[in-house]
Amino acid sequence: MSTLLHVDSSVRAATNPNPDHDSISKNIARRFVDTWKQNRPEDEYIYRDVGVNPPDFITQDWIGAVFTPEENRTPAQEERLALSDTLIAEVSAADVIVISSPMYNYGMPAQLKAWFDQIVRINKTFDFDLARGDFPLQPLLSGKTLIIVTSSGEFGFEKGGIREDSGHLAPHLRTLSKYLGVDTTYEIAAEYQEFGDERHRLSVAKAKARAESLASELSSSASAQSSENEVANV
After folding, report:
1. 45, 71, 97, 216: most buried, per Cβ within 10 A?
2. Per the database entry, which stretches of residues form a coiled coil (predicted)?
3. Does the annotation place 23 within a ligand binding site?
4. Which CATH number fits domain 3-233: 3.40.50.360, 3.40.50.2300, 3.40.50.300, 2.40.50.140?
């Protein structure tokens, strides 16, 4: 059995009275998750909609609690870190992580950044040792697969694209993903939303089809791996 962690970050709902306001990124991610669940209904599923229910921003008191040794923390400090502990536990438990995000002002929503800030935490998801020279930070988690689902109003943010230098969403997610323990990353992107033309329709349709096919591929691989492990343990 695997654990799938699904994190949405659009402030829009997946379904609205006006379909034109439906979140594109959430609906693409839902296509992946629904396919995964159909193929692997026994897997554990954890869902967070940080766009609608955003985590708290970190504060000076939060940082103070993090750098206080656990045995010396006050009840108030433990309470301040409770959400962080919960979010980290969800990431730690996950084998597959799906993060969907719209591009807001060429980067990730503040709500998703707040989620990462609660999780990227010393002695929990990374450690720090100056003996490593110029690269003292080292992730503590590993072995996870990440599916990044993005939607954008413009286009050409990929490597070599006409807006490559303006796209900070996917690169930022890739950079931070190592602190989630991610070893393998897949990306699905829908573009052209602001243009509202045939290119947009085709981009969304292609992204949904890719989400479904990727979920089928990965869930089948996970099932095969689980079967091999069961045979090995007999």
Report:
1. 97
2. none
3. yes
4. 3.40.50.360
